[in-house]
Write a structure and sequence with these properties.
Shape: globular
Helix content: 40-55%
CATH superfamily of the largest domain: Response regulator
Largest sheet: 7 strands, mixed
CATH class of the largest domain: Alpha Beta
Strand order of the largest sheet: 9-8-10-11-12-16-17
Number of strands: 17
Radius of gyration: 31 Å
């Protein structure tokens, strides 16, 4: 209301004194109003970074554009006034009306978010488990790599944005999802809608990734999950085209594990699993694969997430005298199972555990390399793999955090960041749609080898099983990727 009164007062005061303005007040009001609207809205909207526009890297266009429109209108007015004085041009006012109406339509329909200021940084957000049962995994596989990558990028001036012909530093915004799915979804939406981040990094764990995949697709934010392994996500990949899985998947991983047990002539198996999306799905894939190999799964049991005691279940397994114990477990469970199995004297010929066994802290917790000799686990990566930058990445991680990266998800997390950086530089902007399309169609060199996505999932990394041997987590499956032959049977507990 106040703005309207101001504009009308300005109009009444000045239109008669200026040869550049019309003698029709309503038209002059359009001139002033459109000018102010284009100027202030373009500036303020650009500062807020709202909407879904992907033109963040374009130069600020609000005030210059308004100036051009204003100049155009003044020229039309001058033409009209000159025509009036010369009694020649009576069409000018109609032309001006056409211009005003056209501009009015333009400004009421054009997404002003396209008029963004020149950016001075790239804001990246993540909702991840800083507390709760998922926190140990997140604190090992993703958070250190997120922070180290940001430091490395900023040390060289930031990410290269070709459209601006300069590098932009990265700001990382981190929230604690508390290992709760509902909280994770709310925080991702907060990062998008309130914080208006340019890009997102994923949470930890299969269940969390599954929950946020539809959300990032809804808002058009490409995300690569380094700690998700789910065939269900692969089945619905066409519905979540902005989500990518880079980790080994159950189909390939289950087949590699079954092939390894067949090679070692395992007959009787106990299979236990955490009762969440990861454990249920993996068991649903591994158990049939074992059956196809004519192995007898004599124990098939689940246990609740964040359990504190598994000794009753382990006693049952010991009494069954199985050849192999397979555990689809998270870090806390992996540590607990190992501790209690050692206390109970449960020492099968083959002992396979899930997430956490490939962590460097695992061998330290139980008295050094000899204490975990022969134990197998999901994933397999070490600094000797023949991929460019792998050894250097390992050394930088040790130098920065005074600990080794794990041999399961750390390298995959860092690889996902390498891919994101390469995609941004290929695209030349922070256009999320173009970044997504680049990730979906290109092959990227990384510390885990070349990565290429088909149907939203990495097809370059087959199933991989590792085993602790003399302090290193060696690749023992698949056969073609072995860095050492499997030790079988597992040595006794020291």
């Amino acid at each position: 209301m106040e703005a309207g009164v101001l504009c009308i007062s300005w109009e009444n005061k000045f239109w008669r004194s200026s040869p550049s303005f019309s003698r029709e007040p309503h038209i002059n009001f359009c001139i002033l109003g459109l000018t102010l609207f284009s100027s202030f809205n373009a500036k303020s909207w650009g500062e807020k970074g709202g909407g879904v526009c992907n033109s963040e890297t374009e130069e600020m266009a609000g005030v210059p554009l308004a100036s051009k429109f204003f100049t155009l209108l003044l020229r039309v007015n001058r033409q009209q006034n000159y025509g009036r004085r010369m009694k020649m041009n009576y069409k000018a006012k109609y032309l001006k009306l056409v211009v005003c109406i056209s501009l009015l339509v333009f400004f009421t329909t054009f997404p002003f978010t396209a008029f963004s200021q020149t950016k001075d940084k790239i804001r990246i957000g993540t909702a991840i488990s800083l507390s709760g049962p998922y926190a140990p995994g997140a604190g090992m596989t993703q958070i250190p790599n997120y922070n180290m990558w940001v430091e490395e990028v900023n040390a060289k001036g930031g990410l290269l944005i070709k459209k601006l012909n300069k590098r932009l530093p990265v700001e990382l915004i981190t929230y604690d999802d508390k290992s709760d799915i509902g909280t994770a979804v709310k925080l991702v939406e907060k990062l998008i809608l309130e914080d208006k981040v340019d890009l997102l990094l994923p949470p930890w764990g299969t269940a969390m990734h599954f929950a946020i995949a539809p959300v990032v697709t809804k808002y058009g934010y490409p995300v690569m999950g380094p700690t998700v392994s789910s065939e269900k996500l692969r089945e619905i990949a066409h519905k979540v085209p902005y989500f990518f899985g880079i980790l080994n998947m159950p189909r390939e991983q289950g087949a590699a594990l079954a092939d390894l047990l067949e090679e070692l002539e395992v007959k009787k198996v106990a299979l236990i699993y955490v009762a969440d999306a990861y454990g249920i799905e993996w068991t649903g894939k591994v158990a049939p694969d074992l059956g196809l190999k004519k192995m007898d799964v004599v124990i098939l049991k689940s246990y609740p997430l964040d359990t504190k005691d598994l000794s009753p279940l382990l006693k049952t397994i010991k009494a069954a005298e199985v050849d192999a114990v397979l555990c689809m477990s998270y870090p806390n469970d992996t540590f607990l199972i190992t501790k209690q199995a050692k206390e109970l004297g449960l020492n099968p010929k083959l002992f396979y555990l899930g997430v956490g066994v490939a962590f460097p802290v695992y061998k330290q917790m139980f008295g050094g390399p000899n204490a975990v000799e022969g134990i197998m686990g999901a994933g397999a990566w070490n600094p000797r793999v023949p991929y460019p930058g792998a050894k250097e990445y390992f050394e930088r991680h040790v130098k920065r955090w005074k600990t080794e990266p794990d041999r399961w998800g750390s390298a995959f997390a860092y690889a996902s960041l390498q891919i994101l950086e390469q995609a941004i530089e290929k695209v030349g902007s922070i256009d999320r749609k173009k970044i997504r399309d680049c990730i979906a169609t290109q092959t990227f060199p990384t510390v885990i080898g070349p990565v290429r996505f088909e149907g939203g999932f990495n097809v370059q990394s087959p199933g991989e099983i590792g085993q602790w041997q003399k302090g290193e987590f060696e690749v023992v499956a698949a056969k073609e990727k072995r860095t050492a032959k499997p030790i079988f049977p597992k040595p006794s507990w020291p």
